[in-house]
Specification:
By secondary structure, the protein is an alpha+beta fold. It has helices at 10-50, 118-153, 159-191, 242-250, and strands spanning 57-63, 65-87, 93-98, 105-106, 111-115, 194-196, 201-203, 213-214, 223-238, 256-260, 267-281, 286-293, 305-322, 327-329, 332-338, 344-348, 350-355, 358-363, 370-374, 385-390. Residues 162-189 form a coiled coil.
Length: 403
């Protein structure tokens, strides 16, 4: 059996075909991958065209203001009466009658109560009787002394008798002075049976009823009186404002103070600073301040809780804007302003004093910019914006209360 020769020319040809197929497969994979990326990118661009994040950000802007800014210090205060008197009886006895109504406003010197005067009238009569008795003895002794002096001139008696009679007269004169003191003391005790108002003010609830036995200087007393015209409000301010308050006090300026209700919705009264405490409280780092109010309408009531606003200082011709527009970041304090192309720009600031809703701008703004107040969360440098509300044309009047 004969062997056929092997055809070596077919092997290189098959290898070349395999390489061509492999190259084609690789090219096909690259084409498929490129097409997939192109389709994915086009889909993303299509989605971005409908995304809210790619559109201009709607914002509300306010105008930076330049003008006077009133710095007010805000504090919590307590209404304190000008005077508080606990009326007590100075003598013991039965309370006969009460001449006031609970809650009544009374005048100084007005009769409030009557204690049974009978025992004190008896004591006065007894003292006056003893005084009359000693007066009669004195008159008799003085007559005897005149006779002794006449007899002594006639050399009828010794000098010793005249001197003894003179001593008796002097002794009786001393007794008369003591008797007068007893009479005055009895009259004073009798006067204490009528209790009068020591100050103007409003009467509280009575603590004793008529018919009770009253002891002198009892701790509970009969009633209390609080003077409410004028009235004071005591509050504390941070020591940071010490220089401002002291400067106004030294210049004898009247520092205006207003008292507001608990919800800070209604102004109750206006007054002025009366006095500053002589030291700062180490525990709180605050200075106590007392303000006086006329309180003619009785809007303030003793021990009432009030919110206080103290007009400490007026800043003239300063740049200020709403505090809500100010942002705080790692680089410092800044705001977003809107330029002429309606794009957002970051503007770094240096701040001054703070008022309720308003902050003084020391550096960073000139007073004619538009500042973003709402819609800040989606903003970035150069971001297009859509102004939905512009308060620049009608800037709000700055409210002025500092915390």
């Amino acid at each position: 059996m004969s062997k056929q020769p092997l055809d070596l020319t077919t092997q290189p040809h098959s290898q070349q075909n395999k390489i061509k197929w492999l190259i084609g497969l690789i090219l096909l994979m690259f084409l498929i991958l490129w097409g997939w990326n192109f389709w994915k990118k086009s889909q993303a661009e299509k989605q971005d065209s409908f995304s809210q994040w790619s559109k201009p950000v709607p914002v509300r802007v306010v105008g930076v203001q330049r003008g006077d800014l009133q710095l007010e210090i805000k504090a919590i205060g307590t209404v304190v009466p000008a005077s508080t008197v606990n009326v007590q009886s100075q003598v013991s006895g039965v309370l006969q009658k009460i001449y006031f109504q609970e809650g009544q406003y009374i005048q100084k010197g007005q009769l409030l109560a009557q204690i049974d005067p009978t025992p004190f009238q008896v004591a006065l009569a007894q003292a006056q009787g003893t005084q009359q008795q000693n007066l009669a003895q004195l008159h008799n002794a003085q007559s005897e002394l005149a006779r002794y002096q006449l007899l002594y001139k006639q050399d009828s008696i010794a000098r010793q008798q005249v001197d003894q009679q003179q001593a008796l007269v002097n002794q009786l004169k001393g007794q008369i002075q003591a008797n007068q003191a007893q009479v005055d003391a009895a009259k004073l005790q009798l006067s204490y049976t009528k209790i009068y108002a020591p100050i103007d003010g409003r009467v509280g609830f009575r603590l004793k009823d008529a018919g009770n036995l009253i002891q002198a200087n009892e701790a509970t007393g009969l009633l209390s009186i609080t003077q409410v015209h004028p009235i004071y409000v005591q509050f504390a301010v941070a020591e940071n404002y010490l220089d401002i308050v002291r400067e106004a006090s030294k210049n004898k300026q009247s520092i205006r103070v207003s008292a507001w209700d608990r919800a800070e919705q209604k102004q109750l009264a206006t007054g002025s600073v009366q006095a500053l405490d002589n030291q700062i409280d180490l525990n709180t780092g605050t200075l106590k301040v007392k303000a006086v109010f006329a309180n003619t309408d009785d809007a303030l009531f003793p021990n009432q809780f009030v919110n206080v606003r103290l007009n400490a200082k007026t800043l003239h011709n300063v740049v200020h804007l709403p505090s809500d527009a100010i942002q705080h970041g790692a680089k410092g304090t800044y705001v977003y302003i809107i330029n002429k192309e309606n794009k957002a720009e970051v503007r770094m600031l240096k701040l001054g004093m703070v008022s309720q809703g308003q902050t003084e701008i020391v550096e960073g703004l000139q007073g004619n910019e538009r500042v973003v107040l709402e819609g800040i969360d989606r903003l970035s440098e150069g971001q297009d914006v859509q102004v939905v509300q512009d308060d620049h044309a009608h800037p709000a009047q700055a409210k002025t209360v500092a915390g």
